[in-house]
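Example record

One chain of 127 residues, shown exactly as stored in the release files.
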Amino acid sequence: MKSLSARWTAIAVAITLTGSALAQGHDAGHGAHGEQPSHHGAMDMHAMMKKNDEAMAAMPSTGDVDVDFAMMMKVHHQGAIDMAQHQLRHGKDATMKAMAREIIAAQKKEIAAFDAFLAGRGHGTKK
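Predicted structure tokens for this chain:
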């Protein structure tokens, strides 16, 4: 599954770069003078990313790097699920829809692993 791992890395980098550009007020390649993308789906994706980034930034640190990592990764993975579900609802490309289904399945498994870890550390399973 090395190619799937490489795709995940590429997706994570793209999401991070886009989110960083948005946070800095750049147009992230959507045209000059702050033009908005013509497709509502793109704006929905950006809103999802912004909400996800804000949720992670607002999380208080527990002082335990492992717990903080698990808690923030849960939020990050849920954001990936939300975006993938949006892709399934509004996307048209069969390859992207298949990738969205793979992402949902994989991220749910990883969230379950984070939940188990956090429960073992006395941090429950808040979502």
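Notes: The chain is about 75% helix and 0% strand.
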